[in-house]
């Protein structure tokens, strides 16, 4: 393995950090790497907010399903899917007048544009993760920033066409985090197909969850599916995610 592949293979989410601040050069290197990520049409449909204010971090630690890690992380980056910048520029360029003169209705960002901008934001975020890893930094995503959209818009002054796609906590890994076992993955045969999608059958699922079945199941759960459904899919945070994103979609419809 070369250095890049080794960094990718050895990465694991880091949720506890040394208290040490990050040198500005390291932060700059991570940001510069993120900005070099591929971006749809070279439009850079994203923005990044460095959350340096401790009060804001503490608010996020509560609003993102109570994750104290956010308040303690030395460096917190918010990746925003952003069509607002382009819409503001279109306005400055009098696109409404331009379209009216041609008798056309002016196009507006819709769900497709949101997904494209989320693609951009996440590709930049993951490039930051790998760049951070290469510098000996650890990181962890927080998906809960897509929840409680009213509160998060308010906290960061997010306009209509800006959506918080992901939060990243970054810092030097606390020693004990590195001794935790790396989390496994489903075997590639269940994930990577040739030419056509292949639905999994009972035997496939038995194989996929063979290791997981040795985990302690929650009361009332007879198998891993019931366990996962209760713990994640139907959990309050998942319900809140659905509510929050439905609210966002109204603005992009
Ligand atoms: C979109 C996304 C959202 C995530 N949200 C959280 C989160 O809110 N809290 C957390 O502790 N980890 C979060 N994670 C980290 C995952 O739990 C982690 O990647 C997964 O368990 C696999 O572990 P690994 O990254 O150590 O290989 C998130 C990861 C992704 C990709």
Description of the molecule:
The chain has about 250 residues and is α+β, with helices and mostly antiparallel strands. Helices cover about 45% and strands about 10% of the residues. The protein contains 12 helices and 4 strands, in the order H-H-E-H-H-E-H-H-H-E-H-E-H-H-H-H. The chain has helices at about 5-10, 25-35, 55-65, 70, 85-90, 95-100, 110-135, 150-155, 175-180, 200-210, 225-235, 235-250, and strands spanning about 45-50, 75-80, 140, 160-170. The chain has a 4-stranded antiparallel sheet, with helices on both faces. The model has no long low-confidence stretch (mean pLDDT about 95). Flavin mononucleotide binds near residues 13, 140, 143 and 144.
- Structural class designation: alpha+beta
**Helical content class:** 40-55%
Quaternary structure annotation: single chain
Provide the spatial order of strands within the biggest beta sheet.
1-2-4-3
Specify the number of helices: 12
- Name the hetero compounds present: flavin mononucleotide
The overall average pLDDT, rounded, is 96
Distance between the termini: 46 Å
Query: What is the succession of H and E elements?
Result: HHEHHEHHHEHEHHHH
Outline type: globular
Radius of gyration: 21 Å
Count of DSSP strands: 4
Query: What does the largest sheet look like?
Result: 4 strands, antiparallel
Strand composition percent? 5-15%
Identify low-pLDDT runs: none
Give a quick precis of the structure.
The chain has 253 residues and is of the alpha+beta class. 47% of the residues lie in helices and 11% in strands.
